[in-house]
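Take a minute with the sequence and fold tokens given here and flag any structure token that looks odd. Thanks in advance.
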Amino acid sequence: MPEQMTIVAIEDLLAVEPQELSNCLRTLQAWVLRTRRLVAHAEQQGVDPAMLVLEPFRWSPRETRAREATAAPVGLDTPVEDLGLRRAAVFEMRERNLVCPEDFALASEDELLAMKDVGQTSVEHLRRLLGEHGLGFRESDHPLHAALAQAEIAHKTPAAQRCVSDASSISQLGLRPATVTRCLERHIDTVGALRAMTLSELWGQFGKITLRELVLTLRGVGLELNEAPDQWALWKFGVLEPDALTRPHDEDVVRNLAPWVGMSVVKALERAGVATVGAARDVSTGLGRGDAMRVSGLGETGTSRLREFFGGGRAVHTQAKAAQTLLPWPR
């Protein structure tokens, strides 16, 4: 039995071992309920559910066996003390008259997360328990909850179907809900507010993965930052890999060679007065095998990289990957 199965047909269910079938079906029920809620949110927002890119149902037998071995069967009247929650969380839930799973169906996710000792892990655990009995949390009227529901719909809608402008909420752009939360925490609540920031400002607010998501999601709907960064800056900040870049033209500034030859080579060329890619080509052509020091600081490795880039010797792709590590990560 594999660690994880993607179940899309009857044949997949038939492959589940008999002793695991009940666990598989309970997990499938929870997945169906989550998907129905997503479809309902889409319909409320006027989005055609047929346009959503829904995640397939995946099931992990190893995880369900471990859970079954460590947890007793849970009913709607099981005391909160027996739900596997932290003691401090149980005490606070008791104080609010949440004494069994049936009571949690009357509470919203926001109300639970507002409790001092209740975190996202506990909420996910309770959501799964409720899902096994066909229940879920009460819908929240908190603005953030509505924004995240909208973000989940937009994220699963193909980019070509998203109609956004600067006035659109950030939750309509198609970002992951977790990224939308980070944006709202930083008061970036519209697409226009995001576009008004520079690449450097976004780097100071977010990490590399989130920065890449922000820029590429904008591009996916045909938008750019107001100060559209050039491809050198996109590489420098980790948004684009060298494979995704367009090779520079002779009239471009020499720094555009950095993704392929490395920043140390570019700095050596700049110190020597080489300002353009075309001038760097001339330097590469004029360097003999023993003349690596003609450009101070270039060295044999730098000379080799220049030759490979302009001469098309070995795959530039491989050298570009290595050269990227020479640039100190921007701060």
